[in-house]
Design a protein that fits this description.
The complex is a heterodimer of chains A (about 240) and B (about 375).
Chain A: E1 2-11, E2 14-24, E3 29-33, H1 40-47, E4 55-60, E5 63-64, H2 69-74, E6 76-79, H3 91-100, H4 106-119, H5 135-146, E7 153-157, H6 165-180, E8 184-188, H7 192-198, E9 201-206, E10 209-215, H8 216-221, H9 229-237
Parallel strand pairs in A: 3-8, 3-9, 6-7, 7-8
Antiparallel strand pairs in A: 1-2, 1-4, 4-5, 9-10
Helix pairs in contact in A: 4-5
Chain B: H1 2-14, H2 17-37, E1 49-55, H3 60-70, E2 75-77, E3 88-92, H4 96-99, E4 111-114, H5 120-149, H6 183-196, H7 200-212, H8 215-221, H9 226-258, H10 270-294, H11 298-316, H12 327-332, H13 337-349, H14 355-383
Parallel strand pairs in B: 1-2, 1-3
Antiparallel strand pairs in B: 3-4
Chain lengths: ~240, ~375
């Protein structure tokens, strides 16, 4: 589904991604872990065609990214950590706007909005301005907008940051339901417990390099029963171990 | 896609009360205030100088001179009841009437005392008026002497008619007979131009907000193109600018007269007006888009934009009409795009010109606006991978 080979990205003297290679199969949830500044956002931004790259090859859906950026963007969705919508528009106006700019019109428009609304339980707040929503409601709207194009790949950038446990659980359940619907999910988070709870595979990125990429079950089984994802993560990111 | 962009932009602007105030209420109030404040500046009937006369001669000639002076609307003779300040005091010495035609005078014919704060040009205007009056008096005396030499059946033509109002008809170019420029015709174009450039406030608030909140990044990930994105910014603000123009013209035509000011008289070229208005809009939007693209925060954009607008306005003749500027400053004012727009509007409203005459201003404004839009698009494309 996603194939990354020797991808590098430099910002002047700083190397954000250093010969990253990664394969992501269809229908799985990949947890992308790493400390702040490790290169997670750069990697996700490149996969979404938001940052250009020169070195390395990326293909998604079997299509080279550089030549098929529009087609790939059309079939995937990026749900950023920040609430990327308009505070002064209502929930419905936001949904209509983002559907409209993706050329979703006519009957499809209504069905798409209805589906995004019901999946994210936004029915009772359609006419409320986005700025008046609670943090959890805003996150639901943020996710609903990302589902409008019925994406095959969804990139979640720390969707549960600053969310209460109940809502966090709801969001994780929603993500599992997206997986059940056959979607591929790339999920970044600082919460190891969440990764353990929902992800099939984990990739740990440190100083621009993928230092670990394995199915979660393999990763946890290869060590003794006391080992957690957190301890593996800490040993890799603190330089104690170089590879998992 | 573009329809959604336009719809979104309109909703956001309409819900932003501060921007609406800057776009509509501010120029509206300026038009009312400045039309009233400058009303007398354009009033030919207004007295500019107050004078007193000390008549020591008390002759027919000295009284005639005083009558001549009363015919001038820019002079006001002080009376005992007058509270206003005296600018000039004219002393008519004893023997004035007899020395009018004499060359061998030892004393000046008249003496003038001027208050120190009276402008030099005012003294010169007064001097010219007094010279004309003395000339008329002399002619009258010569006429009388010649008349005595003529047979009774023959009359001598009146040579002093240059004192009367119908001696000279003044017509203002592009205006009907007896029509003259008013403060409203100066202030409406000025504050329309100024108000149009204030699109920087809603534009930067929305545009920078989109950048900061990652909405723009989200749109980029949804395949929005730079032309559509920029069209979604330019078109709504062109329409808003045109609405501003209509509203401010309506204020000049209908509201200013209600407050005792002169009504705005429209020119004869609607197409010329539309042309200038659209070109000015492109210039204002180009400036705003570039500032919104370059600025890091809304505060930066509104501060830079506000300062630039005030600077453009001060240089361009919005705040102080160009005619009151020294020649060098008038030439320098041509660097401001507000000056081009203002001249375009004055061509239509004040000078009665048409499309042909406003083409230079239109081209300059369009060129300026489009250049800035292209620079903004270039910078934006480099920053965001769309």
């Amino acid at each position: 589904m996603i194939s990354i080979t020797n991808l590098s990205k430099r910002y002047k003297a700083h190397t954000a991604l250093d010969h990253v290679s990664l394969e992501v199969q269809q229908g799985i949830i990949l947890g992308l872990l790493g400390p702040n500044g490790a290169g997670k956002t750069t990697l996700i931004s490149i996969l979404n065609g938001l940052i250009p790259y020169r070195d390395g090859d990326v293909s998604i859906f079997g299509l080279p990214l550089k030549e098929n950026q529009k087609e790939i963007r059309r079939r995937s969705s990026f749900i950023p950590q920040a609430f990327a919508f308009y505070d002064n528009l209502t929930v419905l106006e936001n949904l209509r706007f983002f559907a409209g700019i993706q050329r979703i019109t006519g009957n499809t428009l209504q069905n798409t909005i209805d589906s995004a609304v019901s999946t994210n339980r936004l029915q009772t707040m359609l006419d409320r301005r986005a700025h008046s929503l609670s943090g959890g409601q805003k996150q639901r709207l943020n996710i609903a907008i990302g589902l409008l194009n019925d994406p095959e790949i969804i990139y979640f950038d720390e969707p549960t940051a600053g969310i209460d446990p109940e809502l966090r659980n709801n969001i994780l359940q929603s993500i599992l339901s997206f997986k059940a619907a056959g979607k591929t999910i790339i999920y970044t988070s600082h919460y190891m417990q969440e990764i353990e709870q929902i992800c099939d595979e984990a990739a740990i990125i440190h100083q621009g390099k993928i230092v670990c990429h394995k199915p979660l079950t393999d990763l946890l089984q290869q060590n003794d029963s006391q080992t957690t994802l957190e301890s593996i993560y800490l040993s890799l990111t603190s330089g104690q171990d170089e590879q998992c | 896609m573009l329809t959604q962009m336009l719809r979104k932009e309109f909703i956001l602007i309409l819900r932003d009360k501060h921007s609406l105030a800057a776009l509509f209420i501010m120029p509206f109030l300026f038009i009312l205030i400045m039309s009233m404040a400058l009303k007398d500046t354009f009033n030919n009937e207004r007295a500019l100088l107050n004078y007193e006369i000390i008549d020591l001669d008390k002759s027919l000639a000295s009284r005639t001179l005083q009558d001549f002076m009363l015919t001038s609307s820019f002079l006001h003779k002080q009376t005992e009841e007058s509270n206003s300040k005296t600018h000039l005091t004219i002393s008519i010495p004893k023997g004035f009437s007899t020395s009018l035609l004499r060359k061998d005078r030892k004393e000046p014919l008249l003496q003038l005392e001027v208050a120190p704060d009276v402008k030099q040009e005012m003294v010169l205007i007064f001097q010219a008026k007094l010279t004309a009056d003395i000339m008329a008096l002399r002619l009258m005396q010569i006429q009388k002497k010649i008349a005595l030499l003529l047979p009774a059946s023959q009359t001598f033509p009146d040579l002093t008619d240059f004192q009367s109002k119908d001696f000279l008809q003044i017509d203002y170019k592009g205006m009907k007979t007896n029509e003259q420029p008013t403060s409203t015709q100066q202030s409406v174009p000025s504050w329309i131009v100024f108000g149009m450039f204030f699109v920087i406030i809603p534009m930067s608030t929305i545009f920078i907000g989109e950048r900061k909140q990652n909405t723009l990044m989200r749109m980029a990930s949804m395949n929005i193109s730079v032309p559509v994105l920029f069209a979604g910014k330019v078109i709504p603000y062109i329409l808003i600018n045109q609405f501003q123009v209509v509203l401010m013209i309506a204020a000049g035509v209908f509201v200013v007269p209600l407050l005792g000011g002169d009504a705005l008289t429209l020119g004869h070229s609607l197409s010329g007006l539309v042309l200038v208005s659209l070109a000015l809009s492109i210039a204002a939007i180009g400036t705003s888009v570039l500032i919104a693209t370059l600025a890091g925060t809304v505060e930066q954009a509104t501060t830079i934009g506000g300062l630039l607008n005030i600077l453009f306005g001060a240089i361009g003749g919005v705040m102080v009409p160009k005619m009151y500027m020294p020649q060098a400053m008038q030439t320098f004012s041509n660097v401001s795009p507000m000056s081009w727009g203002l001249e375009g509007f004055l061509d239509i409203f004040l000078r009665g010109y048409g499309v042909t005459e406003v083409i230079p201003e239109t081209l300059a404004l369009c060129g300026f606006g489009i250049s800035l839009l292209l620079v903004a698009a270039l910078i934006f494309s480099k920053r965001v991978n769309i």
